[in-house]
Amino acid sequence: MIKLGKRMMTALVLTSTCMTSPLQAAPVPLDSIAAIASDGVILRSELDRRITLISDQLRNRGTTLPPADVLRRQVLDQMIIESLQLQEGSNRGIRIPDELLNHNLQRIAERLGMTLAQYRQQLENSGSSYNEVRRELRRTLLLQKIQQNMVGRQITISEQEIANYLDSTEGREKSRSEYKLSHILISVPAQATPEMIQQAEKKAQAVWQQLNKGADFSAVAAANSNATNALNGGDLGWRQGDEMPPALSDVLRGMKKGAISAPIRNSSGFHILQVRDKRGGTVQLVNQARVSHILIKPSEIRDQTQTRRLINRLHRRITEDGEDFAVLAQEYSDDTTSGSEGGDLGWVQNGQMVPAFETMMHATPTGAISRPFESRFGWHILQVRERRQHDMGEEMLANQARSTIRNRKFNEELTSWLRELRSQAFIEIKN
Predict the structure, then answer these.
(1) Are residues 293 and 273 in the same domain?
(2) Is the pLDDT of residue 9 over 80?
(3) Residue 294: phi, psi to the nearest 5?
(4) Is residue 269 part of a domain?
(5) Could you read off the pLDDT of 49-96 as tens digits, one per residue?
(6) Among 205, 263, 264, 273, which residue's Cα sits nearest to residue 236?
(7) Helix boundaries (H) for 225-303
(8) What residues form DSSP beta bridges with 238?
(9) How many domains does the chain have?
(10) pLDDT at residue 421 greater than cutoff 90
(11) Which of 94, 270, 311, 418 could form a disulfide with 89 if both were Cys (CB 3.0 to 4.6 A apart)?
(12) DSSP assignment letter at 232
C-alpha cells in the first residue's frame, strides 16, 4: 500500500464527491484523476491544459499533430515522469527561489530587446497569462535543478580523460564537428524479454519506413518517440558527436546533412537520427577587450534617482575633472570583487557579460570612457583599456573536450536514472 500525499488525498476527494444541493437535479463533478504516480496525481484538467499548450506549440512549428489518443498518451507519459522527478526534488528540499526565477525572466526579456514590464505587457496583449509563464518557467528550472542534483553532480571528468580525448585523432575531428539533430527513441525496458525487444525493433523499422517515404520527422517523433523531447519533434539542437552514446556517435560520423539513419540499437532501445544541419571547424582567434567598470546599484538607502545622480557625478569627475578611474572604482563601486582591483575585469569576450554591457563595450573606443548605462545589475561606467585577438585554440579544444565528455555522461546517466525512477514508482493510468 502506498502512502498518499496531501495533494493526492485532495484529488481523490474531488473525484469521489460532487457539489449538490436540494435545488440541483444532478451532481456536478469537480475534477477527476488522469493518473497516479507514486505520491502524486495528475488531474484531467492539468492534462487537458498541457495537451492544449503542446498542440499550440506543435502547430506554431508547422508540425502535424499525431492522432488525439497518441498525443494524449505521450503528454501523460511526459507528465508522469515529470511528477516523479518533482516528488524526488521535493523530498530533497530542492526549490527555485523567486530571485532566480525573476532573473531568468529578465534574461528572456533582454534577449527580446524588452524590459520585464514590456515583456509582461506583450504576453497579456497576446492573450497569454504572465503568471502561467512564471509557473511553467519555474517548473522547467526546477526539473533542470533536480536533474543536475541527482545526475550532474555525480559526474566527474579527470584531466587524463581530457588528455586522452585531445590526443585522439578521432576526438579532435569530433571536437570540430557539430550536428543539428532530431531523434526518435523506441525504448526497451531494462529487463526486456526477447519478445519485447523484437516488438520494439519491429516498431522502429516501421517508423523508419515512414520516414523513408517522406513523412515529417517531427510529426513522427511526436507520435512515436519515447524520448523526453518527443513533443518537441525530437529536436536535440546542436550536438557534438561524442555527446551522443557511442553506438549513435559511430553512425553519426558518417552521416551527411539531411540524412536519416536506420534504427540503431543500444541499451536504451532503438534510435533513429536525422542530421538537419552540420558545421565544423574551431575558431582559434577570439576578439577580446580588457575592461574596467564602476557599478552603482540602487539600495535601501539609495533609490533609482539618487543612483543615476551618483553615476553621472562620478562620470564627470573622471571625464571633466581628470580624476583616476581606478581610485574612484575602489572607493565607490558596488562590485566589490573588481572594485578592490580598481574596477579591472580582465580580458572579456562575447558571451561573458550581459547584453547591455557587451553592447556598450563594443561601442566604446579603445582608451575611452563610456557614458553611464544601465544593466539588470545597476548603473555602470565602462573603461576599455586594450583590445586584442587572442589565440584560444588549445584552451577552446580542452573546454570542448570537457563539455563533450560531460554531456555524454550526463545524457547516459539521466536516461538510466529516469528509467530507474519510473521502474520503482507506483503508476496507475485511469480510464
Answers:
(1) no
(2) no
(3) -120, 130
(4) yes
(5) 999 989 988 998 888 899 999 999 999 999 999 999 999 999 999 999
(6) 273
(7) 246-252
(8) 180
(9) 3
(10) yes
(11) 94
(12) G
pLDDT digits (tens, 9 = 90+) for 184-211: 999 998 888 999 999 999 999 999 999 9
Q: Which amino acid is at 263?
A: P
Give dist(CA 128, CA 19) in Å, integer: 31
Write the CA distances from 414 to 151, 221, 225, 270, 403, integer angstroms. 6, 20, 17, 17, 16
Query: Does the predicted TM-score (pTM) go above 0.85?
Result: no
The SS3 of residue 407 is helix
DSSP state, 309?
H
Q: Are residues 187 and 271 in the same domain?
A: yes
Residue 157 counted as domain residue: no
3-state secondary structure of 264: strand
What is the extent of the structural domain holding 201?
174-282+404-429
How far does CA 327 lie from the centroid of its chain? 41
The whole-angstrom separation of Cα 112 and Cα 323 is: 38
Angle at alpha carbon of residue 279, lines to 275 and 283, rounded to 5°: 155
Report how far residue 383's alpha carbon sits from residue 169's, in angstroms, rounded to the nearest whole number: 43
Question: pLDDT tens, 38-62?
Answer: 999 999 999 999 999 899 889 988 8
What's the CATH number where 371 sits? 3.10.50.40
Distance CA 45, CA 79 (A): 13
Mean predicted confidence (pLDDT) in 291-320: 94
- What does the alpha-carbon distance between residue 232 and residue 240 come to, in Å, rounded to a whole number? 20
> Confidence class of residue 280 from pLDDT cuts 50, 70 and 90?
low
| Main-chain phi, psi angles of 353, to 5 degrees | -115, 165
13 within a domain of the structure (yes/no) = no
